[in-house]
Amino acid sequence: ITVGLNGAKAGDFQYQIIDGNGRIVLSKKATITAAAEQHSFQLNIAGLHTGVYWLSITQKNKRWGQQLIVQ
C-alpha cells in the first residue's frame, strides 16, 4: 500500500505496525530524501494476517498514526 506523510521533512523516520493485542509485528526505519511537504512510501503488508492493525510513524518530534485493515 502507499502511505502518505503530510508535514514530514527530509531525513530518517521509523514506522511500526501494531496488532490488535498491542504487539509490534513490523518495525522498520526509512529515509526521506526529497525536501517537500508531502511524502509517500510503499508499505509491504503481504505477510500480515487478516485483521485490524495500527500504523505508527515517528520522525524526530512528530508522530502520525493510521488504522490498517488487512483483508
Write out the strand line-up for the largest beta sheet, numbering strands in chain order: 3-2-5-6
The secondary structure category is mainly beta
Radius of gyration: 12 Å
Order of helices and strands, N to C? EEEEEE
Tally the beta strands.
Answer: 6
Largest pleated sheet: 4 strands, antiparallel
Task: Name the beta content range.
Answer: over 45%
What does this structure look like?
By secondary structure, the protein is mainly beta. Helix content is 0%, strand content 63%. It is built from no helices and six strands. The protein has strands at residues 2-6, 11-18, 24-32, 38-42, 51-59, 62-70. The strands form two sheets. The protein has a four-stranded antiparallel β-sheet with strand order 3-2-5-6, with no helix packed on it. The chain starts with a strand and ends with a strand. The mean pLDDT is 88.
Lay out the secondary structure.
Blueprint: E1 2-6, E2 11-18, E3 24-32, E4 38-42, E5 51-59, E6 62-70
Antiparallel strand pairs: 1-4, 2-3, 2-5, 5-6
